[in-house]
Amino acid sequence: MTFRIFCYAILVLLASGVSVTTIARAQESVKSAAAARERSPGIGEYRIGPADVLQISVWKNEALSRTLPVRPDGMISLPLVNEVRAAGLTPLQLRDVLRKKLAEYLPNPEVSVIVMEMHSLMVSVLGEVKLAGRYQLTNRVTVLDVLARAGGITEFASPSRIYVLRPEGSGMTRIPFNYNKVIVAPGENENFFVQPGDIIVVP
User: Fold this and answer.
1) Contact present, 161 and 182 (Cβ < 8 Å)
2) Concatenated DSSP letters of the chain
3) What is the pTM of this model?
4) Cα 95 to chain center, whole Å?
């Protein structure tokens, strides 16, 4: 959207009786939703981990297609390509790796990778919750889902100061989570998905 079109849209809204405050709130909501999307990648961004069960299909080649678990060392074994590291990759990244390796033996191989079972999705909850601990999840859930599984926050918690520690490379990234804001519309857009290894801290 160009600046001229944006200004025209604002003038139309003002002429329709929409207040500047309402416009500002709408802009803030859009920004919040965008930030939440950045923190909560889609299902294709799920990172495969040890013990996850993968369904790998090679089109028109049943001998190479199979369902298998990721070993504790993060590797999987397939005919032709032998050992391939799966842990840490998204399903789409693993698909591309397998496609490239199989291309040495097959013309234009079509590969699909589906995570059938998620056993590596472990998250921890610390602090002012009723059931602090480490939880193994079998599907993708949000921060609120994990807090609910931990029995909810206690009366001594500071809901606006909750944060998530997320592994990033060799360090950790701190992501704020304002419980008070999330449970009130349109704050639910900031209720992002947890990822393997996340630590939810409730001060």
Assistant:
1) no
2) --HHHHHHHHHHHHHTT--HHHHHHHHHHHHHHHHHHHHS--GGGPPP-TT-EEEEEETT-TTT-EEEEPPTTSEEEETTTEEEE-TT--HHHHHHHHHHHHTTTSSS--EEEEEEE---EEEEEEESBTT-EEEEESS--BHHHHHHHTT-B-TT--GGGEEEEEEETTEEEEEEE-HHHHTSTTGGGG-PBP-TT-EEEE-
3) 0.58
4) 19
Q: What is the pLDDT of residue 29?
A: 44
How far is residue 40's CA from residue 23's CA, in Å, rounded to a whole number? 26
**How many Å apart are CA 55 and CA 93, to the nearest integer?**
14
Instruction: Assess whether pLDDT exceeds 60 at residue 13.
Output: no
Lowest mean pLDDT of 9-18, 44-53, 77-86, 144-153, name the range: 9-18
Instruction: Please give the angle made by the CA atoms of 62, 68 and 72, to the nearest 5 degrees.
Output: 150
Rounded Cα gap, residues 146 and 193, in angstroms? 10
Task: Tell me if 114 sits within 8 A of 98, measured CB to CB.
Answer: no
Q: Answer whether 125's CB lies under 8 Å from 133's CB.
A: yes
Contact predicate 99/56, CB 8 Å: no
Indicate left, alpha or beta for 110 from its phi (over 0: left) and psi (-120 to 50: alpha).
Answer: beta
Instruction: Compute the distance between CA of residue 181 and CA of residue 147 in angstroms, rounded to an integer.
Output: 15
| Pair of tokens at residue 100 | 């490239």
Domains of the chain and CATH, by start: 1-39 (no CATH), 53-117 (3.30.1950.10), 120-202 (3.10.560.10)
